[in-house]
# Entry
Amino acid sequence: MSEYISNPEEAKELLPRYKIFYIAIFFTFLIFLSRLWYLQIIEGTELREFSEKNRIKQIKNQAPRGLMLDREGRVLVENRPGFEVVLNPQYVEDLPEVAQMIAPIIGIEKDKLIQKFERSKKQNGSYAQVKLKDNLNRDEVFRLKRLRLEAPGLEVRETVLRSYPLKENGSQLFGYVGEISKKQIPTYNQLYKGKIVFEQGDIVGKSGLEEVLEKEIRGTDGMQLLQVDAHGRETFSQTLDLYGEQIREIESTPGYSAVLTLDKSLQEIAYHHFSQQQRIGGVVAMRSNGEILAWVSSPSFDPNEFASGISPQIWGKLINDQFKPLRNKVIQDYFAPGSTFKAFMAMTSLQEKVITPQTIINCPGSLRFGRREYHDHLKGGHGNITVYEALERSSNVFFYKMGIALGIEKMYNYISTLGIGQRTGIELPNENSGLMPSAAWKKQAIGEEWQPGENLSSAIGQGFVLATPLQLAVAYNAIGTEGQVIKPFVVKKVVDHEGKTVRESNPLVVRDLTQTQKTGIKVDPATFKIVKDGLRRVVQGARGTARFVNIPGADIAGKTGTTQVMGFAANDIYSKCENRPILQRHHGWFVAFAPANNPEITIAALAEHSCHGSSGAGPVVKELMKAYFEKYHPELIAEALKKGKASATQEQPTNSEGE
Amino acid sequence: MDFNFQIEERTILKRINWDMIILIFALNIIGLFNLFSATHGPHSQDIQQLFINQLIWLAAGWSLFFMITFVDYLIVTRLAYVVYFLNLCAVLYVSLFGTIALGAQRWIDLGFMRYQPSETMKLAMIMVLAKTLSHKSSYNLGLGVRDLIWPLILLAVPFVLIVKQPDLGTAIMLSAIAGSMIFFMRIRRWIFILLITVGAIAAPFVWSYVLHDYQKARITNFITPTNDPRGTGYNSIQSKIAVGSGKIFGKGFRKGTQSQLEFLPERHTDFIYSVLSEEFGFIGSSIVLGLFCFLFLVIIRIASSARDKFGALITVGVLSYIFWHMFVNMGMVIGLLPIVGVPLPLLSYGGSSMLTTMTMLGLVSSVAYRRYLF
# Structure
């Protein structure tokens, strides 16, 4: 290669070529400067906001929900601290790797975690936290916390878990809580407009009192603004004031607590007794002023499982259970009241002067009406009886005759004022109104005329008549208190976290039947007294259908009832109920109040598919009555014992008599 | 008389181009402040040391700069092919045994630094091209096919090796520099048109058969970055947020949330300009852009007053090196170009880049120093 020799003339030949560089530099400068202008000045404000959102993470401080206490201040529903592990999707860099690390610690398969994550991302967007597991134990918390640096986006959070120490007991009444669903958010925000703003991940009451009391019990969530880096780590720095004035913390305010009218000990007795017998149905015990003392719906579920995110398996089982554990049977299950209805019929016919207490009516084993034979449960019939015996022995024919004499309109006018066919108005969701039929109703709902024969079936609480256990309790309470139709309630008062009463429920008499009603109905106290005497004989009489329920001294009055699940042919009525498949067995009712003269407590029990009112629903009522009097009026029982009456009425429940 | 008097005037200090030195130094100082901020965030303990390293590279760079300034750049004509050959061996070595970093083999670990041969290859490329092109004349018609064969071979060999590493960014920068030098010499119009046509036809084939998936992703994400905000489009979005959120005056020194809280990836190297834009706003970023443009003007002036064609070509090579790096890096940071791993000369952290740049600027300084024949 030849040695290079400088030649200035040659260099000159390049001079015109430089202009291309000037042009390139000029345009580059112009374009870049315009772009900077666009980004920093035109879009600057918006991008500054973006950078703020980038670094500031809003954390909700979940307010602890209020407690639920019984009438004596004993805890029914409370909170307990818990830990949960969540992933913040925007910080997750390598999902399979993170899932691989977490899987063995929390014992959920890697693929399931990934699935959960992807599903949540699809449903809730890529910025919503994904809860992988809650209710972590200490070991899990410790091991997960160590992982945090290696797995950006992983977070172990302290939470407040709802806890139900009574477990399955009363869960339909208390309800359960769960994460608000995406669909619910707009509905809830509308419902609580101006008070609470609901967001993804919020825990809300989903049924029962948890749902009804949401507004009072949930409190106000606090908020914390944290500065985080790109990996979601909380970041402090001394050198710079990255925080600005925006960063602050708002403390949460705990929710109000609810003092319920329940008596925890009665509640426990009711549930344990009822569930031990493997009864299906509902039991409600109520003070005569409407305060609910015990509330049982069985079979039941453990709301604690909802509090920590219910598994699809358990949920599926609950949903598909043929006996509907999630249903609050006390107000949601409604059946024909059967013979319990006869007390209302007795009241109506006495008040309407169809009979007097002395009227004797012949009651054979069956009654022919129209083209049909209407049967009594006793083949031989009851002979010549008064209204007292008719109630005591639960004669069908007696009340068939009352039905014929009264007609549906009068029955409707009286019995609906007792609350049958109307919601009791208790502060709980999804109450069913039951049904008290009338000719007008039938015309409208079914489009057919009322048939005279239907007066007979209605008279013994069959046919169209439907009632919930709570409605029967309210109606019997009205008989016991001689005309007071009350509104039952379960929330005694709501108190704030300092114990100050926020609101209080007062007993409310909806109607006093001894006063003339708008419909012109008026029932004399004397009428009630006669009915009460009849009901007393059901429990205390020699041939009463619920003799075994009697507790000496407690002066219990009540009525059994049976609801046929299906219509059976005449001879089928006498076939053994116990031999049928469970779903075809009759439902048993028992409603009672005590002491009969001046009742303090009314109990209604529905034992579905138990065949008989006395043996199915009776025992739990007896247990509750016993517990109630032992606790509140031990002197009455003790007195009775002293008088030595106890031995006379120790009988076992018998299924021989129908109701 | 007059003649002698002039020689008298040309002392060493007078012959040095101070304009260029002041501009480089200004960029260095801004770069250091900026790098300090980028490496001293709340969680950046792991990269704090890099600031000290950069000081060392800078000192070494300036030493090289002045050493080269006082050496007659004609010595380069003797060394050009040796440097080129040795550098090519290093590139080959990296392709075979280099340390695996960032999914590509680019480094040789020298213990005190990780040497990136493809970076110095740019310098070697400028040297050999300046040498071979200075023998050609482009009067009237421009360079013909025969003139272009050898320069293109010189480019093609390292280009293929670097693409194989794979480091498409560096390979493209290398050809941009070489292309600028050749184009500066002027080529025949029909060849120019032919090249553009071939390029346009070849593009789809390159897309299908040559580009790696991650390279394709970078280009598609540049077009629609919100497709995958946490994936490859993430860098582009975060960088735009950083630059834009600086607004007019910036968030202030060490107060850039995007960089301090690590939302910006590679904030001390490829995305150093976003750190600057975030903390010093439109004012700061346009000053740096302006300083670069002034530097280019000074370098062009040096080239046009070079005493010979070789000096002019060397200078033009260095100009295109700095220009293309600035162009691609800033273009990427402000969201005008796809994400390509190219450092910003004088501002980004990195020994290879700093030493190469300072050596090149030293050569330019040497050309300026020797602009007078006498």
Q: What stands out?
A: The mean pLDDT of chain A is 85. Chain A is about 35% helix and 20% strand.
